C-alpha cells in the first residue's frame, strides 16, 4: 500500500470518485447505509451526487461492538435509523476508513436484525489495511498505509466540507 | 466526595440514587435511551450487548410493572434474566440479604436489580460487592423504601425532555404524597440537576416533608395555585394505607382538594403534560377525563421506561 501523501487528499473529490464507482450499480436501486459519523456524511454526499430519491440509512454500531466487555458502552450513542425495508434490497454500507473490519462486522450484524438483504456491499473512502477479519471493500477510492499509532479522521468543517485529518494516538 | 455509584474513573458502575450524580451522567443515560427507543421499534427488538450476562431481579417488595419493564429491558439486551420470588425463598427462611447476594454471585450473577422496602438496601449490596472485590458485579436500585427510585426519575426526565425539549425554561409541579414517595425524591434531584428553574411540591401539609425548601422546591398547599402556569404536572399515587394513618380524612376529600380534574388542569399551561408513575387511582388523585385525555403521557412513560432501563443496565454493565 502506498504511504501517506502530504498534503492529505481532498475528501470531497474522493466522494465524487466514489459516486462514479457506484454509478454502474444504480439499476439495482442500491440503498445506502452510512456508519456514524464519517460514513453517514459520505453516504449523504453520495445520495446528493447520484441524485437518489430515497433517504439514506444511518447505523451506530455501539450496541453490536465486540469490545463492549473491555471498553463499555460508547458515551455518545446515536440512534440507528433505517428508513426503508431492508428485505430483498441491495445494501451499500458506507464508511470513511476500513481498518480491522470489526465495525463492518458489527454493522452487518445490525443490518440483519432489520431483515434479509439481497446483498451487502461496502463502499469506503480509505482502506488502510490491518484487517483482523475476512472483510474487503467492494468499492474503495484510496489505499494507504499507516503506522499503528496513526489514525485517519474525517471531519466536517463549519461550512459543511469533508476533510481528512491525521491523528496520533 | 466519595460516591459509591461511580468507579475510580468517575463512570457509573451502580445506579443507586440520582442524588449526587453529575448532569453529564444523567444526560448520557437519556441520550443512550434515545438510541434504545429505536431498538424497541424494530421487528427484532434485541441487541447483543449483554449476551451471556445474567441479570437477577431481586424484588423484596412487589411491583409488577417495574419488575416486568426491567425484565423486558434485560431481555432486549440479550441478557439472561432470573426473577427471584424472594418472599418464598431463603430470606423467608432466615438467610441474610448479604448471604443471599454471596450465593447469587457464586452463581455468576452480573447485575442485580433490587427493590427493597428498606431505604439503603441497594447501597448495602453495592458496598458489600466492593468489599469482596467484585467490581464486575453491578447494582441497579429499583426502589428502596422512601429513599429513591432512580430509574423512575430518569424515565420521567426522558418523558419531559421528549415533550418539552429543554429543561431550562420549565415549571414543574409534583402533586400528592411527597412524604412517602421515593419517586418524588428522585424526580426533585433529577429536575434540579438538569437545570429546571422552578420545581413545585403540591400537597396537604401532612403529606409534604419538612425542609423541602432546602432542596430548592417551592411548596404549595393549594392545588390551584400550585399548578397554575406549569409546563409539567407529575401526579403521585395516593397510597390507600395513608388513609388509615390519620394523615387524610377520606379519599373523596382528597380528590376534592388535590385530585387533578379537567377544571384544575385548565389552570396549567395549555400545552402542559400530565405524568403519573402508576398505578393510578382514578377518582382519588386523578380524574379519568384527565388520565385518558390528550395531555396525559402516562402510557408513553411506560414505553420510555424500558429504553431508559436498557440504557442504565448497559452503561453500568460496561463500567
Quick tags:
heterodimer; A: 169 residues; alpha/beta; Rossmann fold; five-stranded parallel beta sheet; 4 helices; 7 strands; B: alpha/beta; four-stranded parallel beta sheet; 12 helices; globular
Reading off the top of the CATH hierarchy, the class of chain A is best stated as Alpha Beta
| Assembly of the depicted chains | heterodimer
Most strands sheet of chain B: 5 strands, parallel
Instruction: Tally the beta strands of chain A.
Output: 7
Most extensive interface: pair and counts? A-B, 21 and 21 residues
Write down how many β-strands of chain B occur, each being a DSSP E stretch of 2 or more residues: 9
Distinct helical segment count of chain B = 12
| Contiguous runs where pLDDT drops below 50 for at least 5 residues of chain A | none
CATH architecture of chain A: 3-Layer(aba) Sandwich
CATH level 3 topology of chain A: Rossmann fold
Strand order of the largest sheet of chain A: 2-1-3-4-5
Q: What integer is the average pLDDT of chain B?
A: 93
Distance between the termini of chain B: 19 Å
Radius of gyration of chain B (CA) equals 19 Å
What does this structure look like?
The complex is a heterodimer of chains A (169) and B (319). Chain A contains four helices and seven strands, in the order H-E-H-E-H-E-H-E-E-E-E. With 169 residues, chain A is α/β, with parallel strands linked by helices. Chain A has one domain (11-72, 81-168): Rossmann fold, CATH 3.40.50. In chain A, the strands form two sheets. In chain A, strands 2-1-3-4-5 form a five-stranded parallel beta sheet, with helices on both faces. Chain A has a two-stranded antiparallel sheet with strand order 6-7. The relative contact order of chain A is 0.21. The model of chain A has no long low-confidence stretch (mean pLDDT 95). Chain B is α/β, with parallel strands linked by helices. Chain B contains twelve helices and nine strands. Chain B has helices at residues 23-40, 64-76, 97-106, 121-131, 150-164, 182-193, 223-227, 241-244, 251-258, 262-265, 288-291, 298-318; strands at residues 54-59, 80-84, 111-116, 138-144, 171-175, 198-202, 217-220, 232-235, 273-275. In chain B, the strands form two sheets. Chain B has a five-stranded parallel beta sheet. In chain B, strands 2-1-3-4 form a four-stranded parallel beta sheet, sandwiched between helices. Chain B is globular. The model of chain B has no long low-confidence stretch (mean pLDDT 93). The A-B interface holds A 60, 62-64, 68-69, 71-73, 75-81, 109-110, 113-115 and B 11, 28, 31-32, 34-35, 37-39, 42-44, 46-49, 314-315, 317-319.
Amino acid at each position: 500500500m502506498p504511504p501517506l501523501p502530504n498534503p492529505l487528499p481532498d475528501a470531497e473529490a474522493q466522494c465524487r470518485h466514489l459516486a462514479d464507482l457506484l454509478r454502474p450499480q444504480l439499476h439495482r436501486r442500491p440503498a445506502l447505509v452510512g456508519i456514524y459519523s464519517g460514513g453517514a456524511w459520505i453516504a449523504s454526499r453520495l445520495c446528493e451526487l447520484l441524485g437518489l430519491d430515497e433517504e439514506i440509512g444511518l447505523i451506530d454500531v455501539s450496541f453490536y461492538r465486540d469490545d463492549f466487555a473491555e471498553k463499555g458502552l460508547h458515551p455518545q450513542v446515536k440512534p440507528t435509523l433505517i428508513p426503508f425495508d431492508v428485505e430483498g434490497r441491495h445494501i451499500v454500507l458506507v464508511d470513511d476508513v476500513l481498518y480491522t473490519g470489526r465495525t463492518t462486522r458489527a454493522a452487518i450484524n445490525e443490518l440483519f436484525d432489520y431483515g434479509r438483504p439481497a446483498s451487502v456491499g461496502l463502499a469506503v473512502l480509505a482502506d488502510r489495511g490491518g484487517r483482523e477479519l475476512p472483510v474487503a471493500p467492494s468499492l474503495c477510492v484510496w489505499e494507504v498505509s499507516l503506522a499503528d499509532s496513526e489514525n485517519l479522521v474525517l471531519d466536517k468543517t463549519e461550512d459543511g466540507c469533508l476533510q481528512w485529518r491525521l491523528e496520533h494516538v | 466526595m466519595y460516591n459509591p455509584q461511580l468507579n475510580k474513573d468517575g463512570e457509573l458502575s451502580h445506579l443507586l440514587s440520582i442524588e449526587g450524580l453529575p448532569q453529564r451522567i444523567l444526560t448520557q443515560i437519556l441520550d443512550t435511551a434515545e438510541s434504545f427507543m429505536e431498538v424497541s421499534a424494530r421487528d427484532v427488538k434485541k441487541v447483543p450487548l449483554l449476551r451471556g450476562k445474567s441479570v437477577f431481579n431481586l424484588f423484596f417488595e412487589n411491583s409488577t410493572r417495574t419488575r416486568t419493564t426491567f425484565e423486558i429491558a434485560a431481555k432486549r439486551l440479550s441478557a439472561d434474566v432470573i426473577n427471584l420470588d424472594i418472599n418464598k425463598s431463603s430470606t423467608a427462611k432466615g438467610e441474610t440479604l448479604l448471604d443471599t447476594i454471596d450465593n447469587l454471585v457464586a452463581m455468576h450473577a452480573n447485575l442485580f436489580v433490587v427493590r427493597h422496602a428498606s431505604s439503603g438496601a441497594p447501597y448495602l449490596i453495592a458496598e458489600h460487592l466492593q468489599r469482596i472485590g467484585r467490581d464486575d458485579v453491578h447494582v441497579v436500585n429499583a426502589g428502596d423504601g422512601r429513599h429513591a427510585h432512580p430509574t423512575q426519575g430518569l424515565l420521567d426526565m426522558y418523558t419531559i425532555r421528549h415533550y418539552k425539549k429543554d429543561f431550562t425554561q420549565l415549571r414543574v409541579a409534583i402533586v400528592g404524597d411527597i412524604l412517602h414517595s421515593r419517586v418524588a425524591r428522585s424526580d426533585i434531584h433529577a429536575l434540579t440537576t438538569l437545570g429546571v428553574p422552578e420545581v413545585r411540591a403540591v400537597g396537604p401539609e401532612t403529606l409534604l416533608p419538612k425542609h423541602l425548601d432546602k432542596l430548592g422546591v417551592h411548596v404549595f398547599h393549594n392545588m390551584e395555585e400550585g399548578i397554575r402556569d406549569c409546563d409539567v404536572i407529575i401526579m403521585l399515587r395516593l397510597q390507600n394505607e395513608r388513609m388509615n394513618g390519620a394523615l387524610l380524612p377520606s379519599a373523596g376529600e382528597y380528590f376534592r382538594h388535590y385530585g387533578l380534574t379537567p377544571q384544575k388542569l385548565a389552570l396549567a399551561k395549555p400545552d402542559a403534560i400530565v405524568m403519573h408513575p402508576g398505578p393510578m387511582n382514578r377518582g382519588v388523585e386523578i380524574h379519568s377525563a384527565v388520565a385518558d385525555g390528550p395531555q396525559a403521557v402516562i402510557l408513553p412513560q411506560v414505553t420510555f421506561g424500558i429504553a431508559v432501563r436498557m440504557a442504565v443496565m448497559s452503561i453500568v454493565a460496561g463500567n
